[in-house]
């Protein structure tokens, strides 16, 4: 009898298929469908740092308007109470944050009651400043884990790679201080010393690294001559980039690895597991084929394991990781030379 169970960040998953954060994980009805189709876990749609800031600023402006009106009537009294006003600003700021979050928190706690698979909440962030408070609230709302989608495009010509890396490390460190639930970092591949940075991040106390975030894909419309975005959904060939880094980093980092991007079917899922991933995340394929794809992928995984006489995921996980390859770059160079010398 085949057993598809796996663990990820200390969570027990009945199988390695995790539905990644997207617009499809933003409603209770969809979460119920995801669970019913058999997914191992689900990551909720992210709440954004900017969303919170926007809400904070809006409330501050509204409250500022009221203050002006009140000052017209009670000028002296208001002026004498400047200190109180500063306190009020602090209060409004935290209220605004609480308020914005409260919708998300309600969603998290309702989701927790509605499904019986691990629930991973998500925050999309770019700085470690002034929002880590939310992580604690998300934990209290019932999330089993928290994923931090760190959106950092190193496009600022005045910032060094080291500064960018420091920022991500600080995000990890400051959130971990806030919560007891496991925290994962979802990162991009835009680090100059990618392997080294991933090892450093994995040693901050995070429990999972999601490799990789899929950045916004820019394009140009040559008719309107405007910048646009394109390829919102991934293409199945994109799994190879993730595969390389899962294989290189598996066994070398101090946390679990979960593969993300371009995984659309059971074959690419198996490849990521063989490279050493604890589980995989899938998102685009559900936009294309619906949640039925969950049961199809799991049925195909089971058939493949039966054919190969594997009882457990651990029988083949990591079999093709590069943990024993001391210098993966040199190894890859030889493979590359072999391949190209055959072709030309
Ligand atoms: C429409 C859409 C919305 C997404 N929203 C989020 C989000 O809120 N937070 C997040 O971390 N990732 C988000 N993602 C990224 C996915 O979780 C995933 O990392 C990416 O699509 C690559 O995986 P895939 O190839 O399986 O789609 C979104 C993706 C899509 C297509």
| Radius of gyration, taken over Cα atoms and rounded to an integer in Å | 23 Å
Largest sheet: 8 strands, parallel, barrel
The arrangement of helices and strands along the chain is EEEHEEHHHEHEHEHEEEHEHEHHH
The end-to-end distance, rounded to whole angstroms, is: 48 Å
Question: Could you walk me through the main structural features you see in this protein, from its secondary elements to its overall organization?
Answer:
With 344 residues, the chain is α/β, with parallel strands linked by helices. The chain has a single domain, classed as TIM Barrel (Alpha-Beta Barrel). The chain contains twelve helices and 13 strands. The strands form three sheets. An eight-stranded parallel beta barrel has the order 3-4-6-7-8-9-12-13, surrounded by eight helices. Strands 1-2 form a two-stranded antiparallel sheet. The chain has a two-stranded antiparallel ribbon with strand order 10-11. Helix 2 (49-73) runs antiparallel to helix 4, helix 8 (239-249) packs parallel to helix 9 (266-275) and helix 9 (266-275) packs across helix 11 (292-307). The longest helix has 33 residues, at 82-114. It starts with 5 loop residues before the first strand and ends with a helix. The model is unreliable at 69-84 (pLDDT under 50). Flavin mononucleotide binds at residues 20-23, 45-46, 122, 124, 149, 186, 213-214, 232-234, 260-263, 282-284.
């Amino acid at each position: 009898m085949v057993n598809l169970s796996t663990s990820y960040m200390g969570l027990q998953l009945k199988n390695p298929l995790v539905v990644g954060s997207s617009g499809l994980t933003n409603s209770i009805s969809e979460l119920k469908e995801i669970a019913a189709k058999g997914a191992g876990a689900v990551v909720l749609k992210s709440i954004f740092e900017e969303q919170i800031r926007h809400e904070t600023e809006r409330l501050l402006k509204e409250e500022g308007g009221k203050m002006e009106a009140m000052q017209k009537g009670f000028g002296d009294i208001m002026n004498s109470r400047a200190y109180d006003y500063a306190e009020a600003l602090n209060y409004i700021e935290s209220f605004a944050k609480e308020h914005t979050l409260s919708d998300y928190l309600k969603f998290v706690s309702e989701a927790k009651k509605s499904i019986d698979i691990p629930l991973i909440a998500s925050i999309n962030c770019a700085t470690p400043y002034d929002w880590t408070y939310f992580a604690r609230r998300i934990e209290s709302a019932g999330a089993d884990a928290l994923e931090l989608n760190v959106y950092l495009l190193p496009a600022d010509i005045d910032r060094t790679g080291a500064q960018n890396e420091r920022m991500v490390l600080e995000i990890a460190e400051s959130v971990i201080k806030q919560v007891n639930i496991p925290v994962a970092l979802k990162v991009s591949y835009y680090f100059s010393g990618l392997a080294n940075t991933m090892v450093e991040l994995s040693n901050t106390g995070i429990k999972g690294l999601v490799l990789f975030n899929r950045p916004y894909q820019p394009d140009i419309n040559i008719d309107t001559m405007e910048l646009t975005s394109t390829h919102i959904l991934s293409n199945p060939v994109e799994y190879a980039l993730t595969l390389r880094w899962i294989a290189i980093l598996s066994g070398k980092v101090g946390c679990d690895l979960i593969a993300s991007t371009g995984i659309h079917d059971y074959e690419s899922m198996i490849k990521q597991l063989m490279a050493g991933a604890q589980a995989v995340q899938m998102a685009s394929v559900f936009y294309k084929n619906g949640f039925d794809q969950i049961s199809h992928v799991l049925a195909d995984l089971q058939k493949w394991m039966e054919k190969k006489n594997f009882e457990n995921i651990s029988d083949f996980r990591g079999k093709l990781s590069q943990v024993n390859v001391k210098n993966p770059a040199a190894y890859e160079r030889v493979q590359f030379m072999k391949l190209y010398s055959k072709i030309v």
